Structure to design on (295 residues):
């Protein structure tokens, strides 16, 4: 592990190299052994994200507000972890653990004493990320958490953008969900765009924002083109999977979540919101994602 002039941490396994920004504990660079970039570069003119950590919410809130009893709090889409500075609490040449704890500022918008650890490890051709939420308070703590990695589309293996697809581990016949113009979950369901386990990637698919799977059989997907190396994304304990890009952008986000945007018009208590986990005092919850380069 090393720290460069931008204070990003550098990790390597030989097969993969990565750089992580402690601001948001965000995976910011991921390269194969030849130095080819697998991850989006965060072009601010299109989308500044690379692989943000989503906490304590996933997606948008109705009117930007959530409620706990009679109190109301405001949070931006995907919460505050992605713009918070994490502390490095453990590291080696191939792994690091980043930690974020509740402080005076976070308690103003999320009144819970939490600890959030993000462990990133490279082992051969696999990068694994495990995020652990701990409730360090004495009351139940509602929370959501998710991943938002943006992989290059096309991948840097000399295949056309139009030849890329996502292949699911299992058939996914269930209808999908969509978001409205405010980023809120629409009530209606739509026919799955997955055909014989494959989701063909086209810009038209994302004109109505993300494709969201909330009745998912697969625990992994494989992304790539008809020829050349592909990438497997594993998500053993995700409740939802979002797939998103901006039309004509050169990235595709494959997003395992434990949580989801507010349903349109939702005005209930945050603790009862669909997709929210409620952690008892002293409890913890973990979510893992892996990214493996397949030769």
């Amino acid at each position: 592990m090393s720290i460069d002039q931008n204070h990003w941490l550098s990790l390597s396994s030989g097969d993969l190299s990565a750089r992580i920004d402690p601001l948001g504990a965000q995976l910011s660079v991921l390269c194969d052994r030849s130095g080819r970039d697998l991850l989006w570069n965060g072009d601010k003119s299109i989308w500044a994200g690379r692989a943000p950590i989503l906490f304590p919410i996933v997606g948008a809130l109705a009117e930007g507000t959530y409620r706990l009893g009679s109190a109301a709090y405001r949070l931006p889409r995907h919460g505050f972890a992605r713009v918070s500075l994490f502390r490095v609490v453990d590291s080696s040449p191939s792994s690091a653990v980043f930690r974020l704890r509740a402080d005076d500022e976070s308690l103003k918008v999320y009144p819970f004493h939490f600890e959030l650890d993000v462990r990133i490890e490279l082992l051969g051709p696999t990068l694994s990320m495990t995020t652990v939420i701990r409730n360090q308070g004495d009351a139940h703590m509602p929370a959501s958490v998710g991943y938002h990695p943006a992989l290059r589309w096309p991948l840097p293996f000399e295949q056309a953008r139009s030849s890329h697809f996502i292949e699911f581990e299992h058939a996914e016949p269930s209808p999908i969900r969509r978001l409205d113009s405010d980023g809120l979950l629409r009530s209606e369901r739509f026919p799955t765009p997955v055909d014989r386990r494959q989701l063909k990637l086209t810009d038209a698919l994302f004109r109505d924002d993300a494709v969201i799977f909330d009745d998912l059989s697969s625990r992994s997907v494989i992304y790539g083109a008809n020829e050349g190396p592909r990438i497997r994304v594993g998500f053993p304990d995700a409740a939802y999977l979002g797939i998103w890009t901006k039309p004509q952008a050169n990235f595709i986000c494959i997003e395992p979540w434990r949580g989801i945007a507010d349903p349109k018009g939702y005005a209930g208590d945050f603790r009862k919101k669909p997709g929210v986990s409620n952690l008892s005092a002293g409890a913890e919850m973990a979510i893992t994602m892996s990214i493996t380069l397949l030769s």
Remarks:
- Residues 2-157+243-294 form a domain with the Beta-galactosidase; Chain A, domain 5 fold (CATH 2.70.98.10).
- Residues 138 and 281 are 5 Å apart (CA to CA).
